[in-house]
Amino acid sequence: MEKTKVIAHRGAAAYAPENTLPSFEKAVDMGVDGLELDVHLSKDREVVVIHDERIDQTSNGTGFVKDLTLAELKNFDFGSWFNMNFCQTKIPTLEEVIELLDRKKWTGLLNIEIKSGIVIYPGIEEKLIDIVRENNLGDRVIFSSFNHQCLKVIKEIEEKAEIGLLYVSNIIDPWLYAEYLGAAALHPEFHIVYNNPHLVEKCREKSIAINTYTVDKEKHLTGLFKYKIDGIITNKPDLALKVRRKYQ
Ligand code: G3P
Ligand code: MG
């Protein structure tokens, strides 16, 4: 049985501004198995890495990502809100993240979360598949989303693409739903998995992976590593790696 993967949530988001190159670099340097990041489309249809639909929370700018061109987005500072040491950090495109990972010769798992719910980005799925194909990342990427329609479109474009279903509520028999959609994984909020050996057992039986989010406390990490699920998405990859060494 493989070890549970430690997947850095928005990079090492407890230690650097989320979804930026310094955050991903820090996570890679910590020795993570995977990175999770969130994507949106700019006004000129570039895939940019940011969590919110708006830039207000994580930059010195204001407005919706969809209303700003990449050049306009690049004018803002996405680091100072977190810590002045990161002042003038720019919003990255997905391709810039991939370039960084190539430069670092990092070959881990990339979890691309498609943020298409509050703002809908028609055609984002084709753009993502193109980027993944151009960079030969097919077997290293898992797409996830709370918008399962997007994931269905991903599968229609590229049958071999792996998808993980994000969810927060207690769905009945989610392994059957995953099978129906051809999903490789479930990505439940961690309270759903915690103390739920039945879910873990059923998914194992059906070869459906469980990658759970967002787990930052030692107590929860411990419980989940004991279950030997497939992946844990965390803002504190250093802590997760330390706890994993104890139990696996
Ligand atoms: O992909 C796991 C997690 O990132 C989902 O929620 O809101 O942090 O993107 P959120
Ligand atoms: Mg996310």
UniProtKB/TrEMBL annotation:
<dbReference type="GO" id="GO:0006629">
    <property type="term" value="P:lipid metabolic process"/>
</dbReference>
<dbReference type="GO" id="GO:0008081">
    <property type="term" value="F:phosphoric diester hydrolase activity"/>
</dbReference>
<dbReference type="Pfam" id="PF03009">
    <property type="entry name" value="GDPD"/>
</dbReference>
<feature type="domain" description="GP-PDE">
    <location>
        <begin position="4"/>
        <end position="244"/>
    </location>
</feature>
<dbReference type="InterPro" id="IPR030395">
    <property type="entry name" value="GP_PDE_dom"/>
</dbReference>
<dbReference type="InterPro" id="IPR017946">
    <property type="entry name" value="PLC-like_Pdiesterase_TIM-brl"/>
</dbReference>
<protein>
    <submittedName>
        <fullName>Glycerophosphodiester phosphodiesterase</fullName>
    </submittedName>
</protein>
